[in-house]
């Protein structure tokens, strides 16, 4: 039988002193517990506020007003050579970039009339057939929009791109060089092992990959918000954000997405915006003179401007079996002539895009205009002074058509 343990009294101290010390220790422990709990509650609150703020930013991003243009792929079919076809596609890309277009829809305005010029795509949704000229136009548009350092990952050698290397570059703000210091960068998720709980490594066109906050499949194009460097650490860290975030947060134009519509009606029905387009404009020399529109009087949140091909929008309407109207102007909120008293009998589609986007600027009023990007250019950092050379030449993007499975 074991005897009860009797606490031994340390020498030189009375039992009163010992009890007081114990009580003080207990009090101190309780106080520490309270401080710890308060700290934890404060941290939880901070996280809650941050999550709310981020949700607000995401909501704001989704609300930024956008401009989409629809171009018939068939315009390439009238060009005399492969080089001229490529150049024409480059002109559309340059116009879209110059006027900060958010979405380019390449549509088929001819339909089944000339069935031979089609190419097949088999994906999860089943068999899709698209006009070859539409696929080529979409491919060149995507190629030019993609930052040079990512092209080798997203654009394998393809006949459609044979002369794309000769094209005038877009020189878009998101085509960053190593020497550019900007808080957003486009990147590709890499196939690198990461520790459990960590996000994907992303190549953003710098010497070092960025550790991101999300674990994604390799080979995906992502937009990364670069996080401030931690003191004493050389590691680059970033947060994966939506494609709309750079523009919503800084006002900088961040490129366009590309989709293919296999007829005129799909331009309207397959809009990536939740409630579709709230302003639709058709362009034709038979439209209402643009001067009739009030200055800054046409409000929009998601505007769509549709251009026709050789025979105009009327021909596209005729080829679309789903559309039962016989007057093209009835498809749009506005049907406009952007250059009354034109000097040439015909204005080509690629010319009309520049004229229309330019003259509509003074007529349209965005409901949620992105803020003005105040920087005169993207700042050049002194961190990489010796690496000012262009990164090697070289898509995938939210809402972007996946062209990799087209012939
Ligand atoms: C060669 S034109 C087509 C022919 C036609 N006369 C017409 O405007 O419908 C090609 C496209 O350029 C645009 N376009 C040409 N002239 C235009 C004008 N004066 N105003 C607005 N758009 C025009 C239209 O989108 C048109 O479908």
UniProtKB/TrEMBL annotation:
Keywords: Coiled coil
Membrane spanning stretches: none
Coiled coil, from the record: 18-63
Entries under InterPro entries matching the protein: Alpha/beta_knot_MTases, NA-bd_OB-fold, Put_MeTrfase-C9orf114-like, tRNA_m1G_MTases_N
Protein family according to the UniProt entry: Belongs to the class IV-like SAM-binding methyltransferase superfamily.
Listed name of the protein: Uncharacterized protein C9orf114-like
């Amino acid at each position: 039988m074991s005897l009860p343990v009797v606490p031994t009294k340390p020498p030189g101290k009375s039992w009163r002193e010992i009890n007081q010390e114990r009580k003080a220790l207990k009090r101190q422990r309780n106080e520490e517990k309270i401080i710890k709990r308060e700290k934890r509650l404060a941290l939880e609150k901070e996280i809650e506020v941050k999550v709310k703020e981020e949700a607000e930013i995401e909501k704001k991003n989704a609300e930024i007003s956008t401009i989409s243009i629809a171009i018939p792929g068939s315009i390439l079919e009238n060009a005399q050579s492969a080089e001229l076809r490529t150049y024409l596609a480059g002109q559309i890309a340059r116009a879209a970039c110059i006027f900060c277009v958010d979405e380019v829809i390449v549509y088929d305005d001819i339909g089944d009339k000339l069935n031979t010029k089609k190419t097949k795509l088999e994906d999860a949704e089943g068999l899709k057939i698209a006009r070859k000229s539409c696929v080529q136009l979409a491919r060149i548009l995507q190629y030019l929009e993609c930052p040079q350092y990512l092209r080798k990952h997203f654009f394998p050698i393809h006949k459609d791109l044979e002369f794309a290397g000769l094209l005038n570059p877009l020189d878009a703000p998101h085509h960053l060089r190593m020497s550019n210091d900007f808080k957003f960068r486009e990147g590709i998720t890499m196939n690198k092992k990461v520790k459990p709980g960590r996000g994907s490594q992303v190549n953003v066109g710098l010497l070092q990959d960025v550790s991101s906050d999300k674990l994604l499949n390799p080979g995906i194009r992502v937009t990364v918000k670069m996080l401030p460097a931690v003191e004493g650490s050389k590691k680059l860290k970033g947060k994966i954000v939506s494609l709309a975030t750079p523009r919503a947060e800084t006002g900088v134009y961040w490129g366009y997405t590309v989709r293919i519509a296999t007829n005129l009606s799909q331009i309207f029905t397959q809009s990536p915006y939740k409630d579709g387009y709230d302003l639709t404009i058709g362009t034709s020399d038979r439209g209402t003179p643009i001067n009739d529109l009030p200055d800054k009087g046409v409000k929009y949140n998601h505007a769509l401007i549709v251009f026709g091909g050789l025979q105009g929008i009327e021909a596209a309407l005729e080829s679309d079996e789903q559309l039962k109207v016989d007057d093209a102007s009835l498809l749009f909120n506005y049907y406009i002539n952007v250059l009354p008293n034109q000097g040439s009998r015909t204005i080509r589609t690629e010319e009309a895009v520049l004229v229309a986007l330019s003259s509509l600027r003074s007529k349209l009023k965005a409901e949620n205009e992105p803020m003005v990007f105040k920087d005169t250019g993207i700042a050049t950092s002194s961190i990489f002074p010796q690496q000012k050379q262009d990164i090697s030449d070289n898509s995938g993007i939210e809402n972007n058509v996946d062209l990799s499975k087209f012939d």
